[in-house]
Amino acid sequence: MSDDQRDQTPAEPARLGRGQAPAQAEVPAGPQPEPLRFFGTTWVNHDGGYALLRVGLAIGSLATAVSSAVLLRLAYEGLEIGHVGPFLSISVVVLFAIASSIAFTKTWASYSRRPAPSSDEAALKGLKTIGFIGSLIAYFLRCLGEAPGEKLHRAEYESARAEYARRRNTRTGNPAARRPKRKK
Fold first, then answer.
1. Secondary structure (3-state) at 55
2. What is the pTM of this model?
3. Residue 53: CB partners within 8 Å, gap ≥ 6?
4. How far is residue 65's CA from residue 135's CA, in Å, rounded to a whole number?
């Protein structure tokens, strides 16, 4: 058999163990929940290790924020050792403080509402990168109460399910089998 023929042959189905049924790709009717980063769709029913994920991600984001603050402190001490002057030293501290506060505010707000299509989120991407400690702290604080973005996604998912149920309930039978309306 040549390489071209070998590439065109269909793959063999996976071998099933004893008592296993073939996997059927049944997609439930209606809207599907949007997966969250790191959580997938476990936020819907709070199953599949949801609580453990929240605790782990909260601890991880706090540890990352603390280690980042230590690294920034070391960088500041490097500036002091280099004798760059008080203006530059103070400017660096103020820059990181302002960038972190803006990143915290924007990150916190992004968990409760979607940004407008013409918003300034793309322009603030660099500033949010500089103020990454603020974003990490916002992620940590949100993980204490819920998965970051869960409230927003849950509201959208519930409204989509309600809309789907409303549309499904208004349908009655086959429209082709209906009697024509009487003319007045």
1. helix
2. 0.72
3. 38, 39, 42, 147
4. 9
